[in-house]
Amino acid sequence: MLRPERMSKVSVTGSKGVMPTVIETVHELNLLHLSDYDGSWQGFDNGDPIEGAEDASGELVTVRALESTLNLDADEADSVPDSSAIESDWRERLERVRTRINELDDQRGEVREELRQVEERIDRIEPFAELGIDLDLLTGYDSVDVLVGEGSVADVEAALAAADEVRAYETFTGGDVVAIVAAPADGVDDEGLIDDALVGQEFTRHALPDTDQSPTAYVDELTRRKHELESDIEEIDTELEEIKREEGSFLLALEEKLTIEVQRAEAPLQFATTERAFVAEGWIPSEYYDEFVTALSDAVGDSVEIEEIERAEYDRHGAPTHAAPVPDEGGPAVDTETDEDAESESESEPQKAATDGGQKQGQSHAQAGAAGGSGAVTMDDEPPVVLDNLRPARPFEMMVKMVSQPKYSELDPTLLIFLTYPFAFGFMIGDIGYGILYMAMGYVAYQFDSDAMKAIGTIGLWAGAFTTVFGYLYDDIFGVHMADLGLEWLPLAGSLTKGLQATEWAMLWIVLSLVFGLIHLNLGLIVGFVNELSHGLKAAMYEKGSWILTMNGLFIWIFSLHLVDEKPGFIVGEESMFAEFLGFTGLPEVVGIVGLVALVVGFVMVGIGEGIAGLFEWPAWAFGHVLSYLRMVAVLLAKGGMAFAVNLLVFGGYSDETGYTAFNLPTYDVAGYEQDFVGLVHMDPVWIGIPLAIVVFVLGHILVLLLGITAAGIQMLRLEYVEFFQKFYEGGGEEYEPFGHDSAGTQTRSQTAD
C-alpha cells in the first residue's frame, strides 16, 4: 500500500520480420510502458515508422478536425461502434463527410464575416439615427466645422466657449449623441476646429457613414439583413447537427481505429534497430510478466527473445542499478555486479552492442547485446509508478498527484492522507446537518462521468461522514444541540461540546490539536526516515532521526511534570485539560528529563547533519510546525460561532445566571432564563417574522456550509502539503502509461492495476 506496484524491466529482441506482429500484440496487451532509445548503443539507431504511418497520421488529423468543427464529444454520440467494425470503404465515406462538413463550415464562415460587417455598420449608424438629423445636413459646409459624437454636453459647451478660435457654436442632442456645429474666428481655419477645442475632454467621435439613405431607414435595412444572416447560420448549424447525429459514431470509431494505427506505426521510433533486428524495452507490473511472455509467445513463437532484465528495487534514487537476480520463473537472471565492478571491467573490455540481427535462435538479449559477458545492455531510465492502494483510499491519490507523482523509490502517502484528511475535516466542522449535506454534495459530484469529479465526490463522502460522526459527539445539528431538540436520550448524545460557552472544552481541543499535530508530523518524519534508509542508516539518522528526537524530546518535556510550575496550567498539572477529562496530570519528571536529553542530542545531530542552516530552521521544525495545527481549533470555534450566530438571529436566546445561552426553541424549556434576543421566528407580525427567519436560517447555514469547505478543506490541505509533506516527500515520479489504446467505455490495464 505504501509502495507502488513492483515493476519489471522487460526486453524484447527479434528480427524485423516479426516486428509488426510484436507491436500489434504488445499494443493489444496494453501493459508495456515503452522506454525511449536514446541512440547510445554502438551500431543501433532509432527505428523508422512502419509504412503508412504518415497517411494514417494525416487521416487522423482530418478526423479530429471534423470532430472539432462538429463539437463532437464521445459522450454525445448515441453509440460508438468498435473500431474493428469500420467498413472497408471508410475512406470514401470519410471524404464525403469531409467535403460536406467543410463546405458548410466555409459557408458559415462567410456568413459570419458578413454578419460581423453588418453589425459594425449598425454600430456606426445607430448614433446618427438616435440624433435624428439627415446625414446630408452634416456635410458639405465650407465655413463651419461639424462633428458628431458622445460626451457630456455641458463639458463640450464649456470647452467650446473657452476656445478663442471658436467664434460661435451650436449643439444638437439626441439621447447620448451630440452634434456640434462651430464657426471659426476671423483668420482661423475651420478644419479640425472642434477637435482642437475639445482636447482633454472625454468625447467619443463618430465617423460619418457612407450612405444616401436616412440613418433610420439605413438602420432598418441593416437590421433586416442581420436577421437574414442569423437565420442562415441557424440553418447551417441545423444541418451540421444532422451530420453530427448521422456520422458522429462513425467519426469517433474511425478516430479510435486511426489512433491505434498511428500508435503502432510510430512505435519503432522508440526501438533500437539495426538493418535486420530490433530491441524494444519497457516496464510492466511484475505480476503481469508471465501473461506478457505467454501472449508474445503465442503470437510469434520462438521468433523473439523475451527477457526480464530487472525487477526494480525501491532504492533506486535516480541512479540506474541492477536489481537482485530475477527469480528463475520468467527469464534468465541479470548480472548483479556492482556499478564499480562494471565500470572497471568496461575500461578493460568495452561493451559493443551486436549489430547482426541474425544471431543464433534462442540467444538472449544480454548475450547478444554485450561483449565479454559484462552484463545486459539496457536503456537507462527509471521505472514508472503505478500506485497500489486500498480501494477506499484510491480517490485520495488525486491529492497526492496535485503536488507530483511519487517517485518509485519513495513511500506513497496516499493511505496516510486517507486516514488523516477526512478525520481532521470532520473534527473542524463537526455537525450532523452539515455532514449530511457534505455527503449529499459528494454523492452528486460522484455521478459525473469524470475521474476527477468521482475522486472529489468520494473525498466529500468521507469528509461528510466524519463531520456527521463528530457532529453527533459534539451534540450539533446545524448548530443546535440535540438536547434542545428533545433528543438527549440518544446514546452518547451531548458527550462532547465545541466549547463555545464552556471554555474548558475549547482548551481541551487546543491540547488535542497539538497532539494530533505531533502524531501527524511524526508519521511524516518516520516515512522520511524509511525513504532515507536507502542512503544508509547514518544518513537517515542525521536527515530525519535528528528531527524526530528534537521535536518529540521538546514536547515530551512540555507534557511532563519537570518544572511544572513554569508551564501553562491547561497543558500539564492538576488543572490541565488531561487531568480534568482523563485524570492525567502529566508525564513523570524523569521522563521529561529524558525528553530534554533527546532534545539536546537531536539538536546536535541537526547541527552535524545540516549545519548552520539546520540550526536556524530548528525553531520551526521542532516547535512552529506543531503550533500550525492550532488552526484546526480556530476553524472549529469559528464555524461553530457562525452557526450559533445564525441560530441566535432566527430563534432568539435566553441566558441563565452562569451566562449560558439557550435558543428559544419550542422543544426547550426556557423557564428561569432571562431573554436576551427575541429572534426573527418570534417577531411580530408573524407573517413577516417567520418568512424572514426561514430566509436567514437557510442562507446563513449555506454560507457556513460553503465557508466550511474553504476553511476546513483548505487549512487541512495546507497542513498536509506544507507541514506533513515537507518532512519526507519529493515527488517527480513518472506516470505509468502503457503502450496501447482503450476502446470506448473500456478500462485500461493500468487503471485495473491501480
TrEMBL record:
Keywords: Coiled coil, Ion transport, Membrane, Transmembrane, Transmembrane helix, Transport. Gene3D superfamilies: 1.20.1460.20, 3.30.70.2170, 3.30.70.2750. Residues 87-121, 219-246 form a coiled coil. Residues 357-369 have a biased composition (Low complexity). The chain crosses the membrane at residues 415-440, 452-474, 506-533, 545-564, 584-608, 629-654, 686-709. Residues 312-384 are annotated as: Disordered. The keyword Iron does not apply. Residues 336-348 have a biased composition (Acidic residues). Its main location: membrane. It is a multi-pass membrane protein. It comes from the Archaea. The keyword Transport applies. It is found in: Membrane. Component of the A-type ATP synthase that produces ATP from ADP in the presence of a proton gradient across the membrane. Belongs to the V-ATPase 116 kDa subunit family. This is A-type ATP synthase subunit I. It comes from Natronoglomus mannanivorans. The lineage of its organism: Archaea, Methanobacteriati, Methanobacteriota, Stenosarchaea group, Halobacteria.
